[in-house]
Specification:
Two copies of one chain form a homodimer. In chain A, 27% of the residues lie in helices and 23% in strands. Chain A contains 15 helices and 29 strands. In chain A, the strands form seven sheets. A six-stranded mixed sheet of chain A has the order 14-13-12-15-17-16, with helices on both faces. Chain A is globular, with a radius of gyration of 26 Å. At the A-B interface, helix 4, strand 9, helix 5 and strand 16 of A face helix 4, strand 9, helix 5 and strand 16 of B. Chains A, B: One of its GO terms (molecular function) is iron-sulfur cluster binding. Chains A, B: It holds the Pfam family Raco_middle.
């Protein structure tokens, strides 16, 4: 007897025989779970969470009884609280029914190699947090001034700082630090107005963390505030994916669970951020307390969820957020584990779903300072567009969904070893060849490539190639009349194209791209394309001078493939620029220069927000854009590589 | 068989037969414990805490095994955490060994009638927190400004407020409040610069809480910030008494328990304050969230303990505190349950143990604005003195101990019904007559007055009378040669004077004042008197123009009796003024007027601190002052009532 098992957040699913352990199942389905102790129930690293509730869409009811019971040995490894929250060890827990499993970030293996690595950014160093060394006169009976007043005088005398206050936590440490260090100490001062830390002796280390909260992926950059250098980069899945893949489902969750939903979602992202904070600090050899400030970008929904603000109203007309401007909140007040008196600086947001991440892109790419017209596409679960130049800037948000990042794709997986990353299809034989991460060679259809799945960028590759080779029709349907044993009707009657035969994989299963995958990509690219079209009309332009593709995933997308499937309007390919994780770069820029924060607030207010859904012709434009290059005329730059008209 | 039982914080102790319940024992010893359900184990109001550890001074070892075990019924009433923390129900727990019991504030009956009631104060209303009503234009697609920016514009337009920020918690509520109230709302603004609350509709209620943290007693005044009116007064024992009666023992506790002591002490006072906050709000019909600000005064040790700052260094030369100036801390940051975004304004401190409470006295009594020289004595567990006028002010702190407040006195108790509050002794017959709180009549030695103990002010009365009647010698010894059946050698060989015979009491025991009580009062008054003498020498004056007695207990002390025992130097009796709880009044003044906060910071820095212990002749002066009026010449104003020289 077999049961269905689904793994979140990857969305991978499949059938496994009754009695299979969750760990075994994960391996068969290409889901990565840590298990360094070799199933000895010692390390506890393979913790997974059994998600409760019904999943009517899939016809699955999950409950604890669909798993083998916990024995004493497992209970020893797990904390009581964990057991209560349905956490299990994947290595020993056996499947006895349909089940939905959430693999927490900490239990996932496979380094994310989608480049969230930091690009070099040029910015003058003018951080909000600075360190000042002072030597204080020791108190005596004739000079019994309080410790802080003593520090205040020294900071005024030696560094010209006036009207200082001191954070509660720093004050608590001051008496001991002063006396331990013989009154020689380093004060960490925020905005030249508040002492937020005191350390004994002379300390120059001054670090901050720039964070980009994406709907699916979060990235953080531990940054040296003295040099601008990135000391460590950490990324993780946004743990809120367990509440839904896109922001709309998370907002819905908040609305349906009025008293607890928002708190849960806020708690979840804060917990995730704290893991990232701890990992980044550890990686670079610091304590979390060494992180004196954090800057955060994210779309408006993520912004509200992070701050614990009801996101309901920014999702409906007239799309007003609770706060447009940037804000500083003491880390301790909402449980972010950096320096307790340190601040979290949340960048300003624009409107609708166009949030601080987009403002980050503006800081990084600066279309507002250019004469030429830029079209900036920030590709994520929520795609954001900017169109304009120094005279005028428009922005909009497109609900692309997570498909472009490889989620909700039948064989989608993270860009980790075993993931297919490049695909070519011979338009004559319709035979594919592909490359797998961790292997230099292209496949030949015979060799076992140990493929496990397809990463985000390769999905676009694959679909573009399928279209170019005539496997897909203009409307996106798999053309079943095309003769190839790779084109077939799959299980559940879904047409599919076999990319890798079972014997080429490590998951003992053919890897396919199916009709559903194509539809998901069509929806995503249609959203982006129609957004571009409407924005261009709004700005009154027929073309743009440069196309900037932002987003960590964006950087890995093949620009030809993306244009071929119609992700964005035609333009000379040499005008297409990958600008990396511009949102994250913006967070770093704001971390390093306070003038840029001011600039961010100004530009955020200048951008005009276009709510696509309110445009009269939105449905028409979207419908058209769902098609594969619907008008060949619109893609003059692709003429040579477009498929033969069938 | 009998066992010794001691009740904290009253310090009452006695022998009870084995098998007596704690509740019964408390009644016999005049300790008040709530028990409204009649020992049915239903209400749980008689919770007491069994304190662990050895008490070598008393030769008592307390442990759980000295009590009857818990049964199921008791366990049902108590929470598991309470049981673990040795909380028991007094009504059913029986004594099977020597034991020390702490009666928490919530379990004590008997209204504290020592007036912590608020005096009328004159102060211009200029509170830090104000309420502003605004009607916001509803957002639409052409005006999609964020909620806060919308509020900001309205507050600027209607009330001239500029450069506002908004507190994190207020921001969280803003979207819902705006839409619930049709964009008509009231913003609570702190210092005209931060929105700390938003409420639907027009709200005028604007309240704050002024708190005086004494070593033994804490008082709080719920105050209407629009009118200055006191809406409710709450007082409680400082729950830190379980760590020691005076601040030095609490500081020692912190030092001996390096990692946990300070946190425990801070947690204890915060928990206590929260009880007071909740009671005050409830009494006046508000929620705790309605309290927008809190001002706090207390001595330097209490100041540091409240803020979680190591108090070690301010207790040793050169007596430097961590911070002299006032400070504002968000209530939420240290767990004070008022409006989460509201501030706790802690008044500035002077030096040594002369803290914010003394600054409060300065705000209330304003000796710094007078031409005449004031001697201000703030009587508490830590007595604080101010001497001076507009030209110069000296301050010092005297470790009086809790005896003047009736603690650590054999039959001392709170000023509650049953407490002896006034005493007279006939100098011929040596027979006393006394009055009991709750009874208009004076005692006659026969009637059952249902006396339970002696309250603080009556102790001073009693000792002054004993001295006047010749029962006490100048050195404070009970004169055993005086013939009276009331003068006798008590248990354990301690001389005593019987104030009330067993049949006059409700505790089935003679009530006495014994030699130990006299010693405790001698130490306290000696500390105050020698402090006055040294301060006068320092200021270069031989007399003062007015004597202000501050402190809630101080207000109930008979000024003649107090001068008679030598608590302060001689002066015309009509120059003695009771100024009530001036420290608490100062907290109220600061709550109502922000200019006064500035004034407080200025005057706190002007006061010159005198560290008595560093004065060469301190021991001599203190030794002399321990005597009863050591030089009759020093008390010309008492000539008529001084005892005959024996």
């Amino acid at each position: 007897m077999e049961h269905t098992i689904i793994f979140q957040p990857s969305g991978r699913r499949g059938q496994v025989p009754e009695g299979t352990t969750i760990l075994e199942a994960s391996r068969r389905l290409g889901v990565e779970i840590e298990a360094p102790c070799g199933e000895q129930m010692v390390c506890g690293k393979c913790r997974v969470k059994v998600m409760e509730g019904n999943f009517p869409k899939e016809g699955i009811t999950s409950s604890m009884s669909h798993l083998s019971p916990q024995d004493e040995k497992e209970l020893k490894v797990l904390e009581r609280k964990e057991s209560e929250e349905n956490v299990r060890l994947a290595c020993v827990t056996k499947v006895y029914g349909d089940i939905l499993i959430f693999v927490p970030e900490g239990s996932r293996t496979g380094k994310q190699i989608v480049s969230k690595a930091a690009r070099k950014i040029k910015v003058k160093l003018k951080p909000a947090v600075r360190k000042y060394y002072v030597e204080l006169p020791e108190p005596n009976l004739d000079d019994p001034l309080g410790d802080f007043e003593r520090l205040e005088e020294a900071l005024a005398k030696d560094h010209g700082l006036k009207k200082l206050t001191i954070d509660y936590r720093a004050l608590q440490k001051l008496p001991d630090v002063a006396r331990q260090s013989d009154w020689k100490m380093t004060a960490t001062v925020w905005m030249d107005r508040e002492v937020i830390r005191v350390e004994p002796g002379k300390v120059e280390t001054n670090i901050g963390l720039a964070v980009d909260i994406g709907s699916t992926t979060c990235a953080s950059y531990l940054t040296d505030l003295n040099t601008g250098e990135v000391l460590a980069t950490e990324s993780m899945m946004n743990p809120q994916v367990r509440y839904g893949d896109d922001v709309m489902s998370r907002i819905t969750y908040c609305m349906l669970n009025e008293n607890t939903g928002l708190k849960e979602l806020q708690g979840t992202i804060i917990e995730g951020l704290n893991t990232m904070v701890a990992n980044a600090a550890k990686k670079a050899g610091f304590t979390t307390e060494d992180i004196s400030e954090m800057t955060v970008v994210g779309n408006t929904a993520q912004h509200h969820l992070l701050l614990g603000i009801n996101p309901e109203f920014m999702g409906v007309a007239p799309f007003t957020p609770a706060l447009h401007a940037s804000t500083d909140i003491k880390a301790e007040r909402f449980g972010i584990n950096i320096l307790p008196g340190g601040n979290v600086h949340v960048l300003p947001i624009e409107a609708g779903f166009v949030g601080a991440d987009n403002v980050g892109c503006l800081l990084a790419d600066e279309p507002q300072k250019r004469k030429e017209i830029t079209l900036l596409i920030d590709i994520g679960t929520n795609g954001e567009l900017i169109l304009g130049n120094k005279d005028k800037l428009l922005s909009c948000s497109c609900a692309t969904g997570p498909a472009l990042e490889g989620a909700q794709i039948e064989f989608g997986m993270r860009a980790a070893p075993g993931a297919i990353e490049r695909i070519k299809i011979d338009e004559k034989t319709l035979e594919p060849t592909y490359r797998v991460i961790g292997n230099e060679n292209w496949s030949d259809g015979k060799t076992n490539m140990k493929a496990k799945g397809i990463c985000g960028s390769a999905i676009i590759d694959g679909i573009a190639e399928m279209f170019r080779a005539g496997i897909l029709k203009k409307n996106g349907n798999v053309d079943m009349e095309v003769k190839s044993d790779r084109i077939r009707m799959g299980e559940k009657g879904v047409a599919e194209y076999v990319l890798a035969w079972k014997h080429e994989t490590s998951i003992d299963h053919d890897i396919v791209i199916n009709q559903k995958d194509v539809r998901a990509i069509q929806l995503a690219k249609g959203a982006l394309y129609s957004g571009c079209v409407i924005m261009m009309r709004k700005l009154g332009v027929k073309s743009f001078d440069r196309l900037a593709i932002a987003g960590a995933f964006g950087s890995h997308i093949d620009k030809v493939a993306a244009m071929l499937i119609g992700m964005y309007p035609d333009c000379p390919l040499d005008k297409v620029e990958y600008v990396g994780n511009a949102a994250g770069d913006g967070a770093r820029i704001a971390l390093l220069n306070i003038d840029k924060r001011k600039e961010a607030n100004e530009v955020a207010r200048r951008v005009e927000y276009v709510e696509l859904a309110l445009e009269e012709d939105f449905n028409d434009r979207f419908g058209e854009a769902m098609q594969f290059p619907h008008m060949v005329d619109e893609f003059p730059h692709l003429k040579d590589i477009l498929p033969p008209v069938k």
